[in-house]
Each structure stands twice: as C-alpha cells, then as structure tokens.
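Sequence, please.
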C-alpha cells in the first residue's frame, strides 16, 4: 500500500533529503525576443500563417533541466487561438529538422490547445527537456485560423511553415520560410542552481542588423559565448531585447524604450543586470528631414538624458543594476546624414553616460568601434557599409570588449 501511494506522487516529492536540501529550482529567461505589431515590409501578407504550423529556432543562453515557452498576443485585438505546440532539439540553427527522440508536445493548463487573450502573454506548462547553453531549440506552433500578427521582424534566424499540423514532423520538407519570429516571446529555463540574467535593451545595433542570418554573431551572442566559456560565469544568462529602429523617446519600429521597459526587461524572470544601448535613432531622426535650432538640439539631448534617468530609477527600484553603453559613431550615414551638430549631441550624451554616478557601470562601445583617425565615424574594418551598423567583425569586437567582471 505504501509503495502504491508513492508511485502516484510527482518525482519532485520523491527526492531524497540530500537532493531537497541542495536543489532550489528557479526559473530564468534563457532566450527572448521583443514582440510588437509589424508594419510595412515587416508584416506578412494576410493569410500567410492561416491554419499552418510555424517552426522557429532559438538558442537559450544558459543550461537547465526543464523548459517552458512564452507565447505572445501583444499586438492582437482579438484572442489568438493555437491548436497545439511542440518543442524539440533542432538539428542546427539553419534547418527545420529536429531530433525526433527529443520531441515533446507542449501543454497549456494540461491541454494541447490554448486561447491567448488580446494583448496578453501565456506560458506553457513546463516540460522535462534538459538543455545546454547555446543549444538550438525548435518551437513549433499550429495556428487555428488566421492569426493577427505579433512579431519580432529582425530575427536574423529562419523560420519554416507548412499548411496543416506538422508539430511532430521531424523534417518539414518543402516548407516555406522567412526570417522573422512570430508570437514567440521567450524560452524560460528551470535550473537546479541560482542564475543571473542580463537584458540588453537596444535598437538595431543590439538586434543585430547586418549580422549573419542563422550565424548567431550579434554582440550579445559573443557575450553569451564568453560567459559560457568561463566556468565561474556559466550561470549568467543574457537576453537580446533589441528592436531595429527603436528609440528612447518616440515610437518607431516597435514602442519606445520607456514604454517597453517593464515588459521587456523588468518582468523577465531572474533579471539582475540591464545593458542599455539606445539613443542613436533619437539623435539621427532629430534632423533627418530638416535642420533645427541650437536650442532644439540642446532640448533633445536633455530629453535623452532624462529618459536614461527614468530607466535607471525604475530599474534600481527592482534591484537591477544598469550598465550604460556609449553611442557609436554614425557620421557618413546616408539616412541620417549627421553633421557636426549631431556629432556634438552624441558627444554630449556620451559624456553624460561616462560621468561616474549616473550608471552603475559603463561599456564604451564608442571607443571600441570608432576610427581613431576620424572619431566621428566607424572604423572601416567594423563598418558593414552604411556608416551606422557594425559588421559581424565589429559586433565581435563589441562582445569581446565587455568586462565579464561587471556581472559578478
């Protein structure tokens, strides 16, 4: 009788006293993408995902024993209906193929389908899928009907889709594809050990524009690799919450940084550090269409610094350390056509970032990426060609320049 009762208990209840005393499972976000309403070329033609299975490949930045998925209907005006979802180890970052021996059907409150309310996120039930840091994980979702679009357009990762239910399809042969993530906001990891979490909040330079599709060579990827290569720091995860075109003060591609701070940073489980690299689009858009007065330049710089102060104050209230990253050069960019006045604005903002007592620490990306002979411009070896975005080599230099001791 006693044994039959034990067999009915969850495995966690059957842990030995030693296990129970040494293991305190905790959840930490291992991967995330900032979701929002796609517009223009970033939006899919109507019906693209109707009644289809979409397989998306992500790479958690820290290891763990169990996983759960966060589905987002942030931009939806009506409920998002999923007929089902699954998770498995992917064969690689650039393929739809999965290891069928690792395939697990996801459940939501014990059921295979889920209805996510408009504007809301929904967590799956945890699944036992031990995962190493930097593994490729495939999350497949089967849409019931034609979903409204909530997306992260700048994935720099390929997603595959086919009509019908392909949740258990180990190859998805002949699937259509695009380089966006849809409705997939996070992959959370449960660990039997404490963890720290860094969130990188930024624009396209954090999102990785001009990095290699499926190459995982953004500056945040290089930082994740360095953390995992250090035995003392393998319990530190990092999330990339960059959005191309993002700004501190105004909406652009996605909501402004102040508007998304709570959701994309402070609500992430396990967050301890924030790296803030925002402001280049605020500086550039000021005079993109026409010159403005000196007073307007000064007021704009003051507003940017005010936004930094707001972010620091709100993060500190949650016990999160805030690391400021200096804004990289962009003179020569044809879209923003920055002149000496814009460069003076950038220098004023960077001077404030570098001043002790404002941020908890500083990463000087300006120093890393600028051309010593022309410090208002990117180093040619790090310029992908538009005088604004670093090349993969430039992103690597940025990731290499971050002192790991900042996160101790």
């Amino acid at each position: 009788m006693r044994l039959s009762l034990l067999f009915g208990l969850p495995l966690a209840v059957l842990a030995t006293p030693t296990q129970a005393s040494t293991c305190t499972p905790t959840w930490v976000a291992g991967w995330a993408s900032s979701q929002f309403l796609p517009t223009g070329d970033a939006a899919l033609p109507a019906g693209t995902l109707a009644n289809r299975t979409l397989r998306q490949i992500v790479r958690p930045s820290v290891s763990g024993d169990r996983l759960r998925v966060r589905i987002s209907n942030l931009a939806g005006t009506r409920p998002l209906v999923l007929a089902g979802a699954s998770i498995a180890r992917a064969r690689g970052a650039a393929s739809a193929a999965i290891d069928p021996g690792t395939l697990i059907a996801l459940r939501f409150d014990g059921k295979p389908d889920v209805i996510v309310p408009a504007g809301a996120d929904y967590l799956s039930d945890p699944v036992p899928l031990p995962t190493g840091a930097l593994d490729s994980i495939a999350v497949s979702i089967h849409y019931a009907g034609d979903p409204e679009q909530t997306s992260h357009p700048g994935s720099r990762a390929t997603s595959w889709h086919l009509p019908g239910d392909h949740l258990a399809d180990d190859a998805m042969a002949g699937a259509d594809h695009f380089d966006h993530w849809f409705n997939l906001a996070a992959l959370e990891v449960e660990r039997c050990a404490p963890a720290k979490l860094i969130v990188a909040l930024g624009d396209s330079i954090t999102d990785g524009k001009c990095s290699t599709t499926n190459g995982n060579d953004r500056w945040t990827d290089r930082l994740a690799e360095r953390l995992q290569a250090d035995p003392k720091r393998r319990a530190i995860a990092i999330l990339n919450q960059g959005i191309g075109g993002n700004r501190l003060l105004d909406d652009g591609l996605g909501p402004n940084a102040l508007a998304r701070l709570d959701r994309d940073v402070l609500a992430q489980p396990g967050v301890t550090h924030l790296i803030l690299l925002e402001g280049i689009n605020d500086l550039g858009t000021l005079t993109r269409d026409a010159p403005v007065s000196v007073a307007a330049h000064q007021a704009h710089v003051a507003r940017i610094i005010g936004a930094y102060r707001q972010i620091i104050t709100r993060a500190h209230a949650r016990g999160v350390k805030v690391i400021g990253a200096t804004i990289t050069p962009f003179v020569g960019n044809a879209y923003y056509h920055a002149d000496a006045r814009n460069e003076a604005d950038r220098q004023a903002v960077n001077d404030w970032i570098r001043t002790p007592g404002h941020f908890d620490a500083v990463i000087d990306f300006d120093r890393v990426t600028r051309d010593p002979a022309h410090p208002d411009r990117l180093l040619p070896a790090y310029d992908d060609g538009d005088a604004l975005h670093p090349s993969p080599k430039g992103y690597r230099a940025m990731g290499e320049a971050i002192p790991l001791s900042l996160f101790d």
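The first helix runs from residue 2 to 7.
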